């Protein structure tokens, strides 16, 4: 990546967002570290600065357009330009099925998850696209295996990630040819992804859930032994953000999920003893 470019990442105070912030800084980009929790954003930015990078911590609620516009203004004031935007902030539904919840709970959970996962992406793009047109920049959305398949969450989370996939394709159409828009559909990883407050899951993290699961990894996923460290999922974002390496790519999704599309009805064909 060309040094001097600027990347804004939402949900960058922990997990995948923090790993992306660190990776883009190492690639030479200035990084706007945006999170709803300013202390977490400051901690990530401080680590980047200590490693010789350039970072700006920002507090914003992605559900609020004014917050996002203010964050863009601060980013421009600090770095003068905006080249890459990564809508990444999200919450999970902890696979709560329709059979486990009543109508009022489902309604409240739907409103909360869609406000963050879908409206948050929509408003992030609305706040940034004008600056990206100026730099012929790009948007790389964090999608999910739940953007394609069942059981990556419950019905509400899955619906939200299918919606994000639709947003990505629509934005790739609307913002062409000045702005490229792509996505990375990630699998499960060690991250602080939280649940909806509406059903009391806002203090629970995805990492805790992974840690509590017993037994071996899912043998039906071909790359079931890959690391769940978020840092291992950042490469596709760097590729798609690069105007040199991905200048002809828009409306595309890289699936970084261990090969779910190649799963079968038995263990991965080669096996661990291959």
TrEMBL record:
Mind telling me which PROSITE patterns this protein's record contains?
Answer: ADH_SHORT
Question: Which GO molecular function, any one, fits this protein according to its record?
Answer: quinone binding
Pfam families in the cross-refs: adh_short
State the UniProt keywords alphabetically: Oxidoreductase
**SUPFAM superfamilies in the cross-refs:** NAD(P)-binding Rossmann-fold domains
Q: Name one GO biological process term.
A: fatty acid biosynthetic process
PANTHER family documented for this protein = 3-OXOACYL-[ACYL-CARRIER-PROTEIN] REDUCTASE, SHORT-CHAIN DEHYDROGENASES/REDUCTASES FAMILY MEMBER
Family of the protein in this entry: Belongs to the short-chain dehydrogenases/reductases (SDR) family.
Official protein name in the record: SDR family NAD(P)-dependent oxidoreductase
Q: What is the lineage of its organism?
A: Bacteria, Bacillati, Actinomycetota, Actinomycetes, Mycobacteriales
